[in-house]
Amino acid sequence: MADVIFTSGDVQAGYGYVGVITHRLLPSAAEIDQMDQVLGWVYAAFPEGHETARRLIWLRAEGRGWRSMASCAGLDPMTCKRHYLRAIGALVGHLMERGLLV
Question: Which residue range is the domain that position 53 belongs to?
Answer without folding.
Answer: 26-97
